[in-house]
Specification:
Blueprint lengths: L9 E4 L7 E2 L10 H4 L5 E8 L4 E8 L4 E8 L6 E4 L2 E2 L2 E6 L2 E5 L10 E4 L16 E5 L2 E3 L1 H7 L6 E6 L7 E5 L8 E7 L1 E2 L3 E5 L13 E5 L13 H4 L5 E3 L3 E3 L2 E3 L3 E3 L3 E3 L3 E3 L1
Parallel strand pairs: 5-9, 8-15, 19-22, 20-23, 21-24
Antiparallel strand pairs: 1-18, 2-16, 3-4, 3-18, 4-17, 5-6, 6-7, 9-13, 10-14, 11-12, 11-13, 14-15
Length: 273
């Protein structure tokens, strides 16, 4: 995994909330994150929700795996799978990305989750869907039958899927009980995780993005660039040099002896060697 910054990388997304951004394809005359940055590489991203004032700049990973925490709750209409504490009717997945459904919570013990192309799975005449699917019990990959038989007594349980290109709409369902699942759409291609935020409209924290089509693009954040007043030769100082510029920067390394005649404001850490 490497930090990759590239020109003309820009896509759109309709993702909401604070999670990873599913990507809906490159904007006209631009290239995708998968092509311009590459899977598993990190980059600096900027997200803008035009007309809302929402923006976020940070560091993210392309096609990073996503983990959902699953619990079983009865909201009054029978048991349902909850994802990260919320009841969901549909979750949008990105093709080529790996998703892990963490089923460790004790509420799942009698409810082995599976995937199907049929709403309701085997309870509605369908079969289990296994393309790119890994069943895990106690940290090890097992067969579908061993997953079901060992599910209740396992210490850890997980259902993983790496979404295939052009995958169909999928549905989750419980092996034993009908009516618990939700739909999984797979229209988008790839995602960008939001690993750390450098600046945003939410006081430099993760933004809970509202509905709307967002632009997400590769950028060089202001916090990661030298002072605008510095010439290139002033950014790398040799011994016996003089720093005459007045500037502000986050962090750096200074190898002396160097004479400083300008004012240097360091907001992070300066290492002098």
């Amino acid at each position: 995994m490497a930090l990759v910054i590239n020109d003309r990388v820009k896509e759109t997304s309709t993702t909401t909330g604070t999670g990873a951004f599913n990507l809906d394809g490159a904007s006209q005359d631009f290239e995708s994150f998968a092509s311009g940055v590459g899977a598993s590489n990190t980059t600096f991203y900027s997200i803008v929700n035009t007309g809302t004032g929402e923006f976020e700049v940070g560091t993210g990973t392309v096609n990073a795996s996503v983990t959902f925490t699953v619990t079983v709750v009865n909201p009054g209409s029978g048991n349902k799978y909850y994802i990260d504490g919320s009841l969901q009717s549909t979750i949008a997945l990105a093709e080529t990305v790996t998703y892990v459904f963490n089923l460790n919570d004790a509420s799942n013990a009698s409810h082995p989750m599976k995937f199907s192309t049929t709403d309701g799975g085997t309870h509605n005449g369908g079969t289990s869907y296994n393309t790119g699917v890994v069943y895990k019990i106690n940290g090890s990959a097992v067969t579908e039958s061993a997953y079901v038989s060992g599910f209740a007594g396992a210490t850890t349980r997980a259902l993983e899927i790496t979404v295939a290109s052009s995958a169909p709409t999928l549905y989750t369902y419980c092996h034993y009980h009908a009516g618990m699942g939700f739909a999984l759409t797979t229209a988008s291609v790839g995602n960008v995780s939001r690993d750390s935020v450098l600046s945003s409209s939410n006081s430099d924290n993760l933004v809970n993005f509202a509905a709307g089509t967002k632009d997400i693009f590769c950028t060089i954040p202001a916090k990661k660039t030298p002072s605008p007043g510095m010439d290139a030769q002033d950014f790398v100082m040799n011994q016996a040099s003089t720093i005459s510029q007045t500037q502000t920067f986050d962090s750096g390394v200074l190898a002396g002896p160097v004479t400083i005649t300008g004012t240097q404001t360091i907001t992070g850490t300066l290492v002098v060697v």
